[in-house]
Amino acid sequence: MSDIYVYICIFIMAAATYLVRALPMTLIRGEIKNPFMKSFLHYVPFATISALILPDAIFCTAKIPTTASVISAIVGLLVAFYLSIKEKDLIIVCFIACFAVFITDKILGLE
Length: 111
What we know:
Layout: H1 3-27, H2 35-59, H3 70-85, H4 90-108
Helix pairs in contact: 2-3, 3-4
């Protein structure tokens, strides 16, 4: 790949990220009163994170997989789901889920 291609890709990604964040702030000035829209906007971050993480958690398809076992990946996913239902902090959920994957790999003899 040429260097110019990389710079064009970086510029397009930066512009798309900026537009997604800046347009709502400039176009929507007042308070959102529609209950459906408020509910929708409340759940968008959770749905986005779930859509990004779930496939890698179940199928272990990351380029540098953290685990080779689908069993330990599902254990980590279930632990993270349980802790998030209990409304724990994000950093606590991440650390404990990673630790659950590590322990499961040790128990299964994969490490």
